[in-house]
Amino acid sequence: MTSFELRVADPADAPRIALWMQRPHIVRWWQQDWCVERWAQEIERQVAGEHSTPYVVAVDGEEFAYVEVYRVRHDRLAKYYVYGEDDRGVHVAIGDVSRVGRGLGKQLLRSLAEQVFLAEPACAQVVAEPDIDNVPSVRAFTAAGFVQHGELRLPEKTALLMVRTRAAQGGMTCTT
Ligand SMILES: CC(C)(COP(=O)(O)OP(=O)(O)OC[C@H]1O[C@@H](n2cnc3c(N)ncnc32)[C@H](O)[C@@H]1OP(=O)(O)O)[C@@H](O)C(=O)NCCC(=O)NCCS
């Protein structure tokens, strides 16, 4: 049973997030290898706005991942499927290379979806739009109970729309 701790990111986290975003396994899919200052501004912008909330995630007391949870109705994704008013979307990046590919990602995504459902009673779906070629990501979302709902032609990629419903809860135990 793995416990994850999430805290809202702060501009002071920008140096580490900027470093994580330069990692080859992340930059390939996120393409946000920005400088520290831009990340500080980005975090400030997100925290002040309605669109998206940035989080730093810890396991066993060690921070290892960066996550964004966004309101689909304020996101570009709203143009690409028939969204629910309270749908949430997630972006995830495991920055600590020593923790990649060890089963944490799928547990984190399951835990994240369950936390969103708990915190947002009106939210019926948590979604994601991984690149169709991002095999670890698609597999991690699938293992976390997300189901493929077809392809999306986004400007920079062909993505899979992956949808997690409340009904998909259960299965692997994961507390947060
Ligand atoms: C995507 C990501 C969160 C997945 O987390 P992870 O801890 O590395 O993945 P897991 O160890 O939980 O494995 C998830 C699944 O992918 C498979 N997998 C992991 N690494 C893989 C690889 N390099 N190639 C193929 N499959 C792989 C695992 O076998 C597992 O599949 P299974 O459940 O069917 O056995 C993580 O790799 C990451 O941060 N990647 C960079 C950023 C990114 O791509 N974010 C997603 C953008 S939408």
What do we call the CATH topology? Aminopeptidase
In DSSP terms (H or I, runs of 4 or more residues), the helix count works out at 5
Q: Approximately how much helix is present in the residues?
A: 25-40%
Counting DSSP E segments of at least 2 residues, the number of strands comes to 7
Write the layout of secondary structure elements.
Layout: E1 4-8, H1 14-22, H2 24-30, H3 36-48, E2 52-59, E3 62-71, E4 88-94, H4 104-119, E5 125-128, H5 135-143, E6 147-153, E7 158-165
Parallel strand pairs: 4-5
Antiparallel strand pairs: 1-2, 2-3, 3-4, 5-7, 6-7
Helix pairs in contact: 1-3, 4-5
Offer a few descriptive terms.
176 residues, alpha+beta, Aminopeptidase, 5 helices, 7 strands, globular, disordered C terminus, binds coenzyme A
How would you characterize the overall build of this protein?
This protein is of the alpha+beta class and 176 residues long. The chain has one domain: 3-Layer(aba) Sandwich (Aminopeptidase), CATH 3.40.630. The chain is 31% helix and 28% strand. The chain is built from five helices and seven strands, in the order E-H-H-H-E-E-E-H-E-H-E-E. The chain has a seven-stranded mixed β-sheet, sandwiched between helices. A hairpin with a 4-residue loop joins strand 6 and strand 7. Helix 1 (14-22) crosses helix 3 (36-48) and helix 4 (104-119) packs across helix 5. It is globular and about 35 Å long. It starts with a strand and ends in an 11-residue tail after the last strand. Residues 171-176 have low confidence and may be disordered. Bound molecules: coenzyme A (COA). Coenzyme A is lined by residues 25-26, 29, 91-94, 100-106, 128, 130, 134-137, 139-140, 143.
